[in-house]
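Subject — a protein and its fold
Encoding — discrete vocabulary of local shapes:
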Amino acid sequence: MSFTAADGRKLTYRKLGHGPLLVCHPGGPGFSADYFGDLAALWEQYTLIMLNPRGTGASARPADRKAYDIDDYVADLEDLRQHLGLDKMLLLGHSHGGVVAQAYAAKYPGHVRRLVLASTLARFGPDQEQAMRQGMEKRSSQPWAADAAAALEEEQAGRFTSDQELSELVFRELPLYFAHYGGVEAGYVDSLRTEVINADALKLFNEEIFTTFDLRGRLPAITCPTLVITGDEDFICGPLCAKEICAGISGARLVMVGDSGHMTFVEQPQTFHDEVADFLSG
């Protein structure tokens, strides 16, 4: 399904399920909503509106290759809300999508009924980098670890010039994002190999946003009930990041999913489903 953004670009989304609408923003940046799959079967209770962010899936790329700032994504999310005719929406953001969801809920507190921030962060400072390095060290004995770490370093340094080069790096580093990388996880990753990752979006984020953005000052403006959920073995958006978000949002509820990395809805789907569904129905 599609709609037209305020600046005339086409934006698309997947619609799946039954029940109240739940708007879902994926991460990356540069990924479409395809990696959500069925989002731990939340479609059984909710109609999932899974946005393909600007320049992903069939959503048009902006003319400006640098129009991938956090507030650019916030503007697209507001256009989606208006398109759906919602006064207040249930909103879920995962990873970079959680960054967008935080910024949106802070800017438009009256338009979010309940907020789920999954495997995300409010900033990436020295403490967060140290936690990431520790998480990588815990995985260092795995046969794929050295190559995954090298690919992550190349990706974060922006050493890619095309969508294809970026995709090759990302698929090498993805094992890092799981608490355990076995057959199920490898099968899930294989299912994503048709994804065209937007190199412009991720290059801008890595070079100009990742180590400088800081949403902590915006968090007190979020007034809706908020669930912050993350995996206890998430190496990049783990417990440290989740606790920092909760400290900034009044009454935020923290759920730490055991034996899970960054992809909680894949690694521990039943726990993710139950915690999110229970929170949203509250």
About this structure: The mean pLDDT is 97. Residues 70-84 form the longest helix (15 residues). The chain is about 40% helix and 15% strand.
